[in-house]
Design a protein that fits this description.
The protein has 319 residues and is mainly alpha-helical. Helices cover 80% and strands 0% of the residues. It is built from 15 helices and no strands. Helix 2 packs across helix 9 and helix 3 packs parallel to helix 13.
């Protein structure tokens, strides 16, 4: 699995590089990135999610999905607890600096991974549709907690309607309905969804390349060096190592579940992904430091090409 993950990440990185140079040459910027982001969020991802659930219904599979949701919830709560402690320790020891206004963005970036734009094509390339099926449990928990805890960090309030109307939450609900049907969806309905959903990997990587092309790498890296190094270390190494221990514990606890290795491998990879693009969206919507948020997404996305294969190799060695 280590080599398969590394190979898939390399394939994805090549698409990012092609997009980077093409975007640089054509001077693409915010307008194009916003368009691609909206296409992914409101069209491609929902289509892919719904089409993933178009499989024969089975009770054991539904229970396995429930287990994936439960473990995903534990993973997110553990990460929220870890970042809360880390930033509380920072303030207790008088380590505040002018960048403390970014702390909320840092917390969101550390907890909420890029399980959609990077996780979906990566899991699909390694495990196929069955892996993506269980990834939906992680994405469902991700979106619910993002609009509860994430929005609370930004505004001090929570809007339940935002959770219910989130495109990915709606897609997961529709997908579960499709999964529970006693028949598969008609070809003329499901095939367009599959075709659109199949664009997820390429379009996601094109978007990342476009984001990279718009950065002043040298200038912004110098400006954000300290918080950037801290957040990337916690997101890509510290949290995954803690979750690795939980993954091994879950493998032993639920060893009677036939698909437990697939489920835990999918969830561990999703939780080891780089900073999610949602932090950039939140920074823009709530008028925070959007430059730092976007730079954090881009640099952590580049670094994950090294960290994810190493973490997966460590999981294989210990599990």
């Amino acid at each position: 699995m280590y080599l398969t993950v590394a190979r898939q990440l390399l394939v994805m990185a090549i698409i990012v590089i092609v997009s980077f140079f093409f975007s640089k040459k054509n001077k693409f910027g915010q307008k194009e990135s916003q368009y691609l982001s909206r296409i992914l969020l409101y069209v491609v991802n929902p289509c892919m999610i719904v089409s993933t659930f178009d499989v024969d219904f089975s009770g054991p599979k539904l229970k396995s999905l429930g287990l994936a949701i439960a473990v995903s919830l534990v993973f997110h709560l553990v990460m929220i607890f870890v970042v809360t402690l880390l930033f509380a320790f920072k303030k207790k020891n008088g380590l505040e600096d002018p960048s403390d206004a970014r702390d909320s963005l840092s917390k969101i970036g550390i907890v909420f991974t890029n399980s959609g734009f990077i996780g979906i094509p990566l899991i699909n390339g390694v495990f196929g549709g069955e892996g993506v099926f269980f990834l939906m449990g992680y994405i469902l928990v991700f979106n619910v907690l993002l609009w509860i805890w994430g929005e609370w960090l930004m505004t001090g309030s929570v809007r339940p309607l935002k959770i219910l109307l989130n495109p990915n939450v709606l897609a997961c609900a529709a997908g579960l309905a499709v999964f529970c049907l006693p028949f598969k969806m008609p070809y003329v309905l499901i095939e367009p969804l599959k075709m659109i959903g199949a664009c997820n990997g390429a379009v996601s990587m094109i978007l990342l390349g476009l984001l990279f092309s718009s950065f002043d790498i040298a200038g912004e890296a110098k400006l954000f060096a300290k918080p950037l190094a801290r957040d990337i270390f916690v997101r890509l190494i510290f949290c995954p190592l803690i979750l690795l221990a939980l993954t091994i514990f879950a493998l032993n606890l639920f060893n009677s579940v036939s698909e437990i290795h697939l489920i835990m491998s999918v969830l561990f990879i999703a939780a080891s992904c780089p900073v999610g693009m949602s932090v950039s969206s939140f920074a823009v919507v709530f008028e925070k430091d959007s430059n730092y948020a976007s730079f954090l997404v881009a640099v952590s996305s580049a670094a994950c090409v090294v960290t994810i294969p190493l973490l997966v190799g460590l999981l294989e060695a210990l599990a």
